[in-house]
Design brief:
mainly alpha
Length: 306
């Protein structure tokens, strides 16, 4: 039975309850381990509902989720429950690639652009230690799932309907996109051979080559092209990756939206969240209540344990 549409806005705690990271006082909201296809389906409903909101509103919710629940989300990715609620033939098939395509991985797709993700991955605190192994984990799981996904994506229409094929293309695109974000935005170029093993890179590279050609101009093709370049050790691309990494961290851009000046001087980070930097105390004070870009910084600012 299809999930009922949700009328009300979903907040960070709602996502945490659905993902099993927080207990709700309402028993029907707590899904036990094993109900993983139900969990994934509900999460997609939640995400589609919140996608109707403005981008600043979505980022406010996602920022608080990351500040409070990102470590627990990553821990779940490392310790996935076993799905037991397969009801259809398709769900039994999807269970084989559950490790690469599940609710927690889907949530990571939704929040990967949030600055708290970068803070978590760069943190040296014990609570963030799993983040150092996250690229290898996701790469290994993608390498395991890719042959089965490729079989579905490349199958004839007689064997796989367009809707099913699109499902696997979307699953592959999301998995590659998150890996691309981790690699190109957070991994130093000099570390790429140690963060993800050469063996895993060797398994993935043929799929990135194939998908970048077959889906050229489509999302899966674009992210596969970037991962192909990252794994290919092309020296001429190294500076490009360094620029992307620096831009993503925004270390040379003041956090006040109306301050467009890029500066070489060291900017000072917000002492509370440490996810944004400012060229002056005046601009930091202005951004705390400024809503020119949609929402003031105080709505995104949270202390974290990492």
């Amino acid at each position: 039975m299809a999930a009922q549409p949700i009328q009300d806005l979903l907040w960070s705690d709602d996502f945490a309850v659905l993902l099993g990271l927080k207990h709700s006082i309402y028993p029907n909201r707590n899904l036990p381990d094993g109900q993983e296809f139900t969990r994934h389906e509900r999460l997609m409903v939640y995400l589609h509902r919140n996608a109707e909101e403005s981008e600043p509103q979505q980022d406010i919710i996602n920022s608080r989720f990351c500040a409070l629940y990102l470590p627990a989300t990553i821990d779940k990715l490392f310790n996935l429950p076993v799905p037991t609620d397969m009801q259809t033939l398709e769900e039994h098939e999807m269970a084989f690639t559950f490790s690469a395509h599940n609710a927690w991985a889907e949530m990571l797709v939704a929040v990967q652009h949030i600055p708290y993700v970068g803070k978590y991955l760069r943190s040296n605190k014990p609570i963030a230690a799993p983040g150092k192994q996250l690229p290898q984990l996701l790469a290994d799981r993608l390498a395991d799932a890719a042959p089965r996904w490729e079989g579905k994506m490349a199958a004839s229409r007689r064997n796989v309907c367009d809707e099913e094929r699109q499902h696997y293309i979307s699953a592959a695109a999301n998995a590659v996109q998150v890996l691309n974000t981790l690699c190109t935005h957070f991994i130093k170029v000099k570390d790429r051979e140690t963060v993800i093993s050469r063996e895993t890179q060797g398994k993935l590279l043929p799929f990135f080559l194939r998908w970048s050609r077959r889906y050229r101009g489509q999302f899966l093709g674009d992210v596969s092209e970037r991962m192909k370049n990252f794994f290919s050790n092309q020296a001429e691309r190294d500076e490009e990756f360094r620029i992307v990494r620096r831009m993503y961290r925004n270390w040379d851009v003041c956090g006040l939206p109306t301050c467009n000046e890029r500066t070489e001087k060291k900017l000072k980070a917000c002492g509370r969240c440490q996810t944004v930097r400012y060229c002056s105390s005046e601009h930091q004070r202005m951004d705390w209540t400024n809503n020119i870009a949609g929402a003031p910084h105080k709505q995104f600012c949270h202390k974290t344990e990492y």
